[in-house]
Amino acid sequence: MKTSQFNFGKWSLSRLVRWTVLLVVGGWVLLNWHGDRTVNELAIRYTYPESKWVTIENQAIHYRDKGKGPVLLLLHDEGSSMHTWARWTDTLSQKYRVISVDLPGFGLTGPNLRGSYSSFMYASFIQQLTDSLRLSTFSLAGVGMGAQIAWFYAAERPGRVEKLVLIGSKGFEKSSASWVTIFAQTPVLNRVMWVITPKEFFRLLLEEVYADDRMVTDSLVIRHFELTLRPGNRKAFTSRASVRDNRPPVDFIEKIRVPTLIMWGAEDALISTQHAYDFHRQIRGSFIKIYQNSGHWPQEEWPVESAMDVQAFLEDRF
Questions:
Q1: Which of 155, 164, 286, 313 could be a cystine partner for 261, CB 3.0 to 4.6 Å?
Q2: What is the pLDDT of residues 76-113, one digit of tens each?
Q3: What residue ranges in the chain does DSSP mark as E strands?
Q4: Residue 139: beta bridge partners?
Q5: SS3 for 111?
Q6: Is the domain of 148 the same as that of 266?
Q7: CB 158 within 8 A of CB 283
Q8: Is 270 in a helix, a strand, or coil?
Q9: 143 bridge partner residues
Q10: Cut 0.85: pTM above it
């Protein structure tokens, strides 16, 4: 007795399923296959009137320089750009010279030409940048990865940093890999990420960053998506993910002697608020501020209040 089969003309059910799956997967790949966008094309949308460029080790570095007065240098987080500081810049540039920069591997600056993305490279980059801009001393603020670069730099070169602001800083958290990082570390799959970039992945990632998902607007998602398409930025992401030991020694934190303000979102889903108090204990005389109803980037969720707190701190009124 023959086993019955469902036939659709010459098509068996199993064959129909295979072709359906193939077409769905093929359609998804085609929909999310994105070529690079040229720097000139992106610059039209993502530069500011105050945007400038400086060459460091044969690489053009994009930065924004607005205002006059004491200098405040701002370092963005991983997966971000100088645009995260837009509201702070508008507020603080009324009294300060506010400089924000697209770090190597991000934004319009693009990949590091040497392919290095360790914390040690970034600390060296800050030294070269500030030397190129002739900044003998300055205050330094960073968020997430940028905060880690900032405290490492301040610990190594205390004579250059006047005051330090750390927002949701990396340092004490346990080393763990997200599913995106695991993909980026996996041979073959990481090369796929250089060309297949689903826009909606950015929405999912940003919803982890913000406490209020309503802040994850279409324009925000598009900005993060498009800047990732800058030539070399997607490869830079997989290169950073492959750096196994990218953490400066935590022991360096207690070497920090400059006045420090520690800021954190109470609902930070990426780095526990408990680590704010770890930094507070390690940095002698530091101040701490926790923002309710805020995730990992309080400088964006509470831009005016957090900027006013920074100004008060810089003016010894905090």
A1: 313
A2: 999 999 999 999 999 999 999 999 999 999 999 999 98
A3: 7-8, 11-12, 51-56, 59-66, 71-75, 97-101, 138-143, 161-167, 260-265, 287-291
A4: 72
A5: coil
A6: yes
A7: no
A8: coil
A9: 167
A10: yes
